[in-house]
Amino acid sequence: MAAFADQLALCLLASLRIGPTLAFAPPFTLMRVPATVRAGLALALAAWIVSVAPPQTHFSPAAFVSAAFAELGVGIGLAFCLQWAFAALQTAGQAIDIQAGFGLAGLVDPTLRTQTPLTSALFAYGAGAVFFASSGPHDLLAVWARSFEIVPIGGFDGRADLAGLAEFLAAAFVLALGAGGLVLLALFVIDLAIAFMSRTLPQMNVLMLGFEVKTMAVLLVLPLALGVGARQSVAVEPKRRLQCERRRPCEDAVEQTDQDRTEEPTPFKLKRSREKGMVARGTDLGFFSTLCALAAFLIVAGAPAVDGLVQMTRSTLASRLDAASDPSAMTAAIAADWGAVTGPVMLLCATVAAVVIFFEIVQLRGLVFSTHPLKPDFSRLNPAKGLKRVFSMRMLKELAKSLLKFAAYGAAAAFALQATLRLHRHGLASADATLRLHRHGLASADAIAQAFQAAGYRLLFLFILVALAVALLDQVLARREFLKQMRMSRSELKREARDREGEPRIKQRRKQLHAQFSKQTRELEGLAGADMLIVNPTHYAVGLAYEPARMDAPVVKARGRNRFALLLRRRAVLLSIPIVEDRTLAQALYRGAETGAPVPASTYHAVAAHYLRRRRHSFVADPHA
Predict the structure, then answer these.
(1) Taking residues 78-90, what's their average pLDDT?
(2) Could you point out which of 7, 211, 292, 581 has its C-alpha 20 to 30 Å from the C-alpha of 82?
(3) How far are the Cα atoms of 361, 423, 608 from residue 62, in angstroms, in the given order?
(4) pLDDT exceeds 80 at position 418
(5) Do the Cβ atoms of 272 and 495 come closer than 8 Å?
């Protein structure tokens, strides 16, 4: 009895996952199926899935309620995905309706009691027909069964693959664009043609003919678009299922790749990445170098530059007002003042540029020049990858780092301001500061300027310290993140080793071929001292040499078979070496002696017979005779 209750509870929980798709998701909403039939179908499918699923533990009342909500959430998610795919097709239909002018009319959906445009309804019902005509029901059953394998009943913990969901949502709209793109392209071409006719043929009333032309074009192209879309969906789906089957059951392929990349990058991969312009580069070193350049400029040339600007302003206001009546004098005065103003500014810009470039070269450990980033990468236009970059751990780290920098610079500014107010609390903040300003005039103004100058230097010094700390931390994090991205899996290490050194079997074969070629080259060169060439007539060739004063028996100077035997024959013809056809002896010599070794004893009689015949008759063989 308890087992039956557990099975019944599992059936109810499984039906909560299956039911939302049958109740709210198309194409089931396109059919007028009673709710009782849908509920019965959900229970039947749930009973089938529970019967083939592995047994699970008993659920307490609290666990049953929690599992019910979890299963209902998973079911709503599956129904939402199916609804999203059909909504993408309806969006494509609405786009066609707007371009073709069909939006003025519509169909009333009796189920939802809403008005649906013509093409949207056609796309929806067409997709439903394709769903039931192809392997759609089988795929849906496979999705349900697969979901129970990945997430068992009551095993949903609230986590979801947002990147995979974003990729699915983007793929659905890409499919919809492919279904309606042909019609939209045809309408665009028609609009261009109508615009051309309106300019070249005034007698054509495009306002009256445009709707008719578009209607005929849509009616002609729409069946073709639906057929192409259906054929692509049916053809692509098995490949997609095959790719999904190759993936790991419970984990995403991206997660699998990231988990497999556990090995540190090799120097070769880092070198190749550097050639492509991919290096570890922090973003906060530039601000630190800018502050350092500003401080260096103020220390070295700040006071002279400010004094020069002050003197230029005073001289302009005091002595050059009379030059306003003389254009040439005014031009000379403006040129002199312009040089006095732009000189310090140009020096500051040059200093900042030089310091920033120096620090960037130090950061990148040398100059890096690559044209690889200039190559177009259309995968960056993929909205799924864009969402992955936005909702990623890297962006969270960047947000945390930005908040940390904001807090650090804010604390430095607050500290500098408090120190300035503390030093001048009895000066600028006192009531008699204004009296001293009026009493001493410029001296008090200079004191105020010096106070603000000291505060500015203090703030700049604190900012440099904070920027240095942030830049060092950013360098550590950037290099760590870069090395993490450059990590390699064991398969990548093996592949790199094969690419650099060659596959072991290929490498061994290459060594064997090299040794064989070297040996054959030596044998071709050694054939020059042979007395005769014993052949069979095309498959085997053995060159013999005999010097009675130094040798006890003839020696094999060269040996070969097949193609190399033909090469030995050609070489013998060029060297005028006699060629003797003896099949048995040629095979015995080839198999019984290596190059440089004496002939076997079993062949002494046959070899001696050929040497005696050659000596007795001064035999010279002609290979073409």
Answers:
(1) 73
(2) 7
(3) 63, 66, 104
(4) no
(5) no
> Of 142-151, 202-211, 605-614, which has the strongest mean pLDDT?
605-614
Q: Is 70 exceeded by the pLDDT of residue 268? A: yes
Contact 559, 543 (CB under 8 A): yes
Q: Which residues pair with 532 in a beta bridge?
A: 544
Which tokens in the block code for residue 222? 């729409």
**Range name among 240-249, 407-416, 437-446, 564-573 with the lowest pLDDT average:** 240-249
Phi and psi of 544, rounded to 5°? -120, 145
Hey, is 574 helix, strand or coil? helix
User: What pLDDT score does 623 carry?
Assistant: 45
**Closest C-alpha to 294, from 414, 463, 434:** 463
Question: What is the signed CA dihedral for 223, 224, 230, 235, rounded to 10 degrees?
Answer: 160
Q: How far is CA 387 from the centre of its chain?
A: 14
Is 548 strand, coil or helix? Answer: coil
458 vs 291, 297, 355, 422, CA distance in Å?
13, 16, 21, 13
Do 291 and 409 form a contact (C-beta atoms < 8 A)?
no
Give the pLDDT of residue 441: 46
Q: Are strands 532-536 and 540-545 parallel, antiparallel or unpaired?
A: antiparallel
Geometric angle at alpha carbon 151, from 145 and 157, rounded to 5°: 155
Are the C-beta atoms of 539 and 562 separated by less than 8 Å?
yes
Q: Give the residue from 243, 41, 31 showing the smallest Cα distance to 144.
A: 41
What residues does each domain of the chain span? 2-256, 285-485, 509-617
CA distance 220 to 226: 11
> Cβ contacts of residue 278 below 8 Å, gap of 6+?
482
d(CA 148, CA 119): 37
Three-state secondary structure of 226-273: HHHHHHHHHHHHHHHHHHHHHCCCCCCHHHHHHHHCCECCCHHHHHHH
pTM of the shown model: 0.41
Report whether pLDDT(241) > 50.
no
Dmax (CA) of the chain: 141
In angstroms, the CA 9 to CA 59 distance is 8
For residue 280 the two structure tokens come to 């570890």
Q: Which residues of 342-380 are buried (b: 16+ CB within 10 A; e: fewer)?
A: eebeeebeebbeebbeebbeebeeeeeeeeeeeeeeeee
> Residue 127 carries which side chain, given as an amino acid letter?
A
Q: Which residue has the tokens 């004893």?
A: 601
Beta bridge partners of 536: 540
| CATH number among 3.40.1690.10, 3.20.20.70, 3.40.50.300, 1.40.20.10, domain 509-617 | 3.40.1690.10
Confidence tier at 323 by pLDDT (50, 70, 90): low
The residue among 591, 547, 174, 562 whose CA lies nearest residue 382 is 174
- Kind of pairing between the strands at 579-581 and 106-109: unpaired
Q: Tell me the C-alpha distance between 159 and 162, whole Å.
A: 9
Highest mean pLDDT among 198-207, 214-223, 492-501: 492-501
DSSP per-residue string spanning 449-476: HHHHHHHHHHHHHHHHHHHHHHHHHHHH
CA distance 314 to 301: 20
How far apart, in whole angstroms, are the C-alpha atoms of residue 470 and residue 474? 6
Token code pair at residue 289? 């170098």
Alpha-carbon gap, residue 318 to 332, rounded angstroms: 16
